[in-house]
């Protein structure tokens, strides 16, 4: 067991962002169903796992650490998850689900002129709101196994596909936009934003992730527009002034 599993100085998740800490299960008889009890146990265990990974790193966390931090028993852990990988996958899936739904919701509520900045800000603000979760799953999960990396690729590809489809829809209203860009262009955008955020999270101090948005938005917005044609200047002898 690592010394940090009981450490009260380990940063806590931000309540209501990606996870919400449920109340402790009452002792003795109660009116909760088995499903409700299981949901409470899973949530508390996922939160404990996430906080420990953010503090100690992906490879430093074991079942005993999660059990100790969540103040639950090993029996409760194995009632909720088959093993530590299952707990990790469930927590990571929660992160991806909330992040993707936040971006899509913001995207579909926007207009043409604010498409790119709105989507990037939705992503960065979600991470900024809970830096513990962001560090756990943006940074430390790069050391996870093939299954988690595959899930990350699937999630990012899904976001890129949604962005492509919404871009094509918006391009019908804006003649300046290039309507036939392939999914790979949007996937490159998604990876660029993700890497910039990860680098900021990996630096010292408390990052300001939203500061990443303005230069990225300017570059991305321009890259999604049609190539500008222009008339070549007439040929002939140059005029010398002065």
TrEMBL record:
InterPro entries assigned: Homeodomain-like_sf, HTH_TetR
Residue ranges of the region described as Disordered: 1-32
Gene3D superfamilies, A to Z: Tetracycline Repressor, domain 2
Signal peptide segment: none
Gene Ontology MF annotations: DNA binding
Coiled-coil portions: none
Keyword field contains DNA-binding: yes
Protein name: HTH tetR-type domain-containing protein
């Amino acid at each position: 067991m690592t010394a940090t599993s009981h450490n009260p100085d380990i940063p806590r998740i931000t309540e209501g962002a990606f996870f919400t800490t449920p109340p402790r299960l009452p002792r003795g008889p109660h009116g909760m169903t088995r499903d409700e009890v299981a949901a409470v146990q899973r949530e508390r265990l996922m939160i404990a796992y996430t906080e420990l990974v953010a503090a100690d790193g992906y490879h430093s966390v074991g079942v005993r650490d999660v059990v100790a931090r969540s103040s639950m028993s090993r029996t409760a852990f194995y009632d909720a998850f088959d093993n530590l990988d299952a707990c990790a996958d469930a927590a990571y899936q929660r992160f991806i689900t909330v992040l993707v739904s936040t971006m899509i919701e913001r995207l579909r509520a926007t207009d043409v002129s604010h498409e790119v900045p709105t989507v990037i800000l939705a992503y960065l603000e979600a991470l900024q709101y809970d830096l513990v979760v962001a560090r756990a799953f943006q940074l430390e999960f790069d050391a996870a196994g093939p299954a988690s990396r595959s899930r990350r690729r699937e999630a990012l590809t899904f976001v890129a596909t949604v962005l492509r489809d919404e871009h094509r829809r918006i391009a019908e209203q804006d003649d300046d936009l290039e309507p036939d860009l392939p999914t790979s262009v949007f996937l490159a955008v998604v990876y660029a934003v993700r890497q910039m955020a990860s680098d900021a999270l990996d630096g010292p101090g408390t990052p300001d992730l939203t500061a990443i948005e303005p230069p990225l938005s300017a570059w991305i917005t321009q890259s999604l527009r049609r190539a500008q044609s222009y008339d070549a200047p007439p040929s002939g002898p140059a005029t010398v002034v002065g």
